[in-house]
Amino acid sequence: MLTNLKINARRLWDSLMDTATFGGTEKGGLKRLTLTDEDKLVRDWFKTQCEAIGCTVSIDEVGNMFATRSGRDDSLPPIAMGSHLDTQPTGGKFDGILGVLAALEVMRTLHEQDYETNAPIEIVNWTNEEGSRFPPAMLASGVFAGVFPTAYAYEQVDRNGVTFLEELERIGYRGSMKAGDHKLSAMFELHIEQGPILEAERKMIGIVTGVQGMRWYEVNVHGQDAHTGATPMYLRKNALLGAARIVEAVDAIGQKHQPGVATVGLIENKPNSRNVVPGDVFLTVDMRHPDENALDAMEADFRAALETAIPALGLTYEEKKIWSSSAVKFAPELIDCVRSAAAKSNFGMRDMVSGAGHDAAYIARIAPTTMIFVPCEGGISHNEAEATSPEECAAGAQVLLDAVLAYDQTLAK
Amino acid sequence: MLTNLKINARRLWDSLMDTATFGGTEKGGLKRLTLTDEDKLVRDWFKTQCEAIGCTVSIDEVGNMFATRSGRDDSLPPIAMGSHLDTQPTGGKFDGILGVLAALEVMRTLHEQDYETNAPIEIVNWTNEEGSRFPPAMLASGVFAGVFPTAYAYEQVDRNGVTFLEELERIGYRGSMKAGDHKLSAMFELHIEQGPILEAERKMIGIVTGVQGMRWYEVNVHGQDAHTGATPMYLRKNALLGAARIVEAVDAIGQKHQPGVATVGLIENKPNSRNVVPGDVFLTVDMRHPDENALDAMEADFRAALETAIPALGLTYEEKKIWSSSAVKFAPELIDCVRSAAAKSNFGMRDMVSGAGHDAAYIARIAPTTMIFVPCEGGISHNEAEATSPEECAAGAQVLLDAVLAYDQTLAK
Description:
Two copies of one chain form a homodimer.
Chain A: H1 9-19, H2 37-52, E1 56-59, E2 65-69, E3 79-83, H3 97-112, E4 121-125, H4 139-144, H5 150-154, H6 164-170, E5 186-192, H7 197-201, E6 205-211, E7 213-222, E8 226-227, H8 239-256, E9 261-270, E10 276-277, E11 280-289, H9 292-309, E12 316-325, E13 328-329, H10 332-344, E14 349-354, H11 359-363, E15 369-374, H12 390-409
Parallel strand pairs in A: 3-4, 3-5, 5-15, 6-14
Antiparallel strand pairs in A: 1-2, 2-4, 6-13, 6-15, 7-11, 7-12, 8-10, 9-11
């Protein structure tokens, strides 16, 4: 039942490199934080390209973009492919972007060959997957899936005090369509692995069976600003010393609960001056594990560490869980389509659970969903040095095309 | 030989409160970083006030301001009084400012009473005492004293990449006078204690006999940015974990070598994102002790801690001592004048060594110098809550007046 359509590897690579100029950094990475001027540039480009091949582009109220191509039976909900075009502050050229631009390449191939699908086919660009400007991550796919109310997304504030809604309107991507209003027959997300396993095992395709559970926390530590020279050690309330003990404790929790991971990624020290004992520190904690019970144990260890370490230094603190995402299992019928597609091209493959969060984890709540992974060099991502080869990008796009068409054939009347 | 001149306590307090609007913060403190627009405002105000009472204001090449009142014998070098008008990012209303405005109050009292001194009397406002924008601290008094070349001050860069010289010119305070070109007969610096001792012992005046030795260091820690979810604990190179161990080690060194102190005051984490394992951290270390040999031992402990902690985490680092200041002993003949002045007003007093660095520590290299301390509430400074009462400010100004006039009388021919 598989077709003989071939994606154009060169055209895909050129699109990846062309759009990498929107927010490109000196070190060859990308800084394209969600809803910035750079994000607007790539969105405008994406819209133009999709319209050029006959797609209809619609925008929902949280800026999610849908480029739709009609099928034989437009009463069927569309089969969606996609990911996100925003990046980390020092991100790479592939995380999220490959999933959108490979979907565009699939669409271009269908258009070029005049291939008619049963269901409509759709490319999606989800707003603010990264969450590094407006936490939490996967915010707009979360709204689409009914996890967050629209108002919750609108009121999120970045570290400069600007809201999601203000920035969405400023760049002209607040659409009128209610988020989640149209159904999906399925959702396929191609993504780089962001870990070292495929490369280490020399496999081309990761068959992603699910996503691990994740929890995010914020901690404020309070002490007392004081002069570094005139304040004896025994009279200090050093908030940074408390923060250092949290960084140490969080790392130890990750070590103890492997394959779980635990990280302090962001820290802000105040007043942050060479000759002032720090009086206040803000920091964030990220904990993940494939097993929810293990995550509960990690959380308990974390809270116990705070209770022990902070008051012992004469400090106070507030801790808040700001976001969590349960472990997810993807749709078996879609996983089968990916497996068949990879086999058709004779790509080496292995099943895996995603260590990173993805829009697909939320979409899985409302539609059959799965993901396809390709390797990235050294497992490095969220980094300007992030690298996936033209061959690996092409392999992912080909598997995406074949998996989508295989699934489309199951929808024939 | 002491006069009966009385300073005007109300006028001094009004000047302190009036100028606190230049860079005033919501919490009642000051943010008046050196060579900013706010610094220019207070400089302009100070110049106007001094000229209004007949002083001649001159500016040197690093922005130090001198307001001079003629004496009976202008061939004598002036007796200087003063401190600095710049503050920490979250500083108070008294640190440095009291020393300049009390000197202004002394000058106003001399002018009002038409009192003729033997030597010229001078108020000094030293540029960039704090060093929190352009390290090191006491930069311009250091240039004046020949510790640093002028070019060294000019090329210092803030965290935004702007140079000292650019900002000095921008606010219009690059004078033509070569720094250090005119001699001083003496230098008296009134300052808040910035520590808890005078308050605890209910003493009004600290007779400052010297300043402890200080050393400043910078450390860069390098690891590898990586995705928090997809990077197993055993493959991480977490630069923030290394930094946390440095914060802990530096605190332990302070604890071990008391009455010495050791502090990490400033830390910058990169890329500082919730879901990225930190790849690079910059931090600063401040170590102080009254004994230079003890400081050597603290430095050795610090370097040993770096060598042990950082490579063990798979990280690399660079460490650099960016500044040091030896322990200082003040001029006995000036200390005697301060002691007599405090006794004349029946103020409780005690000898002490300054825990903080001051411009006086550099000026002591080229002229007889001493300091006068008054209490500050809870020993708190470098903080918006910094507080010294009107009575304590007035006591300090009165002792400054009497000490200066007592020293002036020793210069009579």
